[in-house]
Design a protein that fits this description.
By secondary structure, the protein is mostly helical. The protein has a domain at about 15-140. The chain is built from 7 helices and no strands. The chain is rod-shaped, with a radius of gyration of 32 Å.
Amino acid sequence: MRTNLVPRTAMRGQSQSSHDRLAKSLGYFSIALGVAELIAPDAVARAAGVRGLEPVVRAYGAREIATGVAILASHDATPWIWGRVAGDMADIATVATGLKQDNDKKENSVLALAALAAVTVVDVICASGLSAEKGGVKTAVADYTQRSGYPGGVRSARGAASDFEVPRDFRIPDPLRPYGEGSRGRSSA
């Protein structure tokens, strides 16, 4: 009978932490947002107050879909969530250009920036939580200072082999022994 030594939360599709569930939700959100940006870049650009950047919005849609699929398909979504954070920074920079444009929809850019800031905060919280759970500094270092490697500890191992006799075929043959150790009458000086 084989026992499973991998914790249940580390198995594909079986993660149960709140950060894992949040990451999965962010994956679905990325796909939905990406589809909207690909299908209707004009409407998304107009809603964000960044007219004229429809090709950029469409490219961001492809990025969102790819990131969402990667989050959902990955065993460890941590790098993909950090990728979302980087994408959020690009989105914020792009929408911020709407504040400098001559348009009557600057209030849309302000609202879009507020929404992007909120989503970025959620992404950072999720990414930080996943990093702490799955390989951060606290979890990456194993502490073996209290382990000896002996089942009963070092004290029980001391003297355990005192009655051990080396088998004859393990011994150095007499002709190969240094002077003074052989049994052929060599001098010990």
